[in-house]
Amino acid sequence: MTEMTNPAASSPGQEPTLTSIHCAGILHHPRKPESLALAQEMADFIRIHCCTPWLASAWDEATVVSQLPGTDLLITLGGDGTVLRAARMGARFRVPILGVKLGRLGFLAEIQPDEWRKPLELVLAGQFWLEERMMLSVTVHHRASRRPHRHHYEALNDVVVGRGKLARIVRVTTHVDEGYLTTYAADGVIVATATGSTGYALACGGPILPPELKNILLIPIAPHLSLNRAVVLAPGDTVKLDVESDHETILTIDGQFTVDLDNGDRVEVTSSPHVARFVRLRDRNYFYRELMDKLRWHP
Question: Which residue, 43, 199, 247, 265, is most buried by CB atoms nearer than 10 A?
Fold first, then answer.
């Protein structure tokens, strides 16, 4: 058994509490065979350190969620997409994530696949800190259906209301809390967290937000004669997006799955009560330094 410092479990002004690691889940990528071999190797290493490992495909949500109660650590073997999946599954169980970079950029990963033994040993020894990232709570009101209903989702990076296959703008009437903001005429509208500000939102000209911020970022995609600037909302704000379109419109969650929308449907987004937790071994000022390295923006 090992111990970790868990500042997320303490209240402001209190000393961090200690939580023991008894069980670690390892999520491998189903399209990266090398990740399964690495997962099995890590499982053997974890057993030697008196913890119980379990393995699952990161895409097998039913199996992963069934194992999460009682799990103290999730190790992801893949790219940032694998981390996003793990965050959506693990946030409500308050399970911290340790990302092993097997993708291209690895914004959210912490350790390298060829140098994992020492970092993992430090984690199992409790020598790390926890970073919290805000998530989005997304409710889709299918108001245009014969039987109006709604669905709920969570996202770590962003959600996008956008056009489908047809290259034609959609109109999205947007309210912040109860006040009207604007009506976008664009390919789509991105609603991003600070984590997502370095992804699709950045490609559309959005600002980079520090990862600890709890603000929501709004930014249109290819706007036409409508608001063409990013808007940063205050923490706790709720944004409501009403779809006006006579052709295919979709909602995309974290760039990983879509939901069909009809004319008159509403997408409501606010901060989630759940947060994603990441195990960090780097110093606490790592963000901008590594961002510049990954984006190759050094002069």
Answer: 265
80 in catalytic set = yes
Residue among 60, 72, 80, 265 flagged as catalytic:
80
Q: Identify the sign of the CA torsion 115, 121, 124, 127.
A: negative
> How many CA atoms are closer than 13 Å to the CA of 210, on its beta-carbon side?
6
Digit-coded pLDDT (tens) for 238-290? 999 999 988 999 999 999 999 999 999 999 999 999 999 999 999 888 898 88
Taking CA 226 as the corner, what is the angle to CA 222 and CA 229, rounded to the nearest 5 degrees? Answer: 70
Q: How far apart are CA 164 and CA 162, in angstroms?
A: 7
**84 by DSSP, 3-state: which?**
helix
DSSP-derived letter for residue 297 is: -
Q: C-alpha angle 206/210/216, rounded to 5°?
A: 55
